[in-house]
Amino acid sequence: MTAPDHAEMFAALCREVGFCLHEKGEARVIAALPNGLDAAVRAVLAAEGVDEPNAPGDLKRAIRDCIKANLPQA
Description:
mainly alpha, single chain
């Protein structure tokens, strides 16, 4: 069994939301995914240096929707 390819998810996140994560940031998001979409959103914001409690709801929703729409099928 191979690990899912998250490249398209991160490309979409960069293209659609403007968050083009570095390798460490991507690893944080992948590690957070098993804990749910909200954990993944927090990991994206942390990787980008955005203070999560002060991030606009629209931004969090856009990140969540983008991740959900582009999750690799296992």
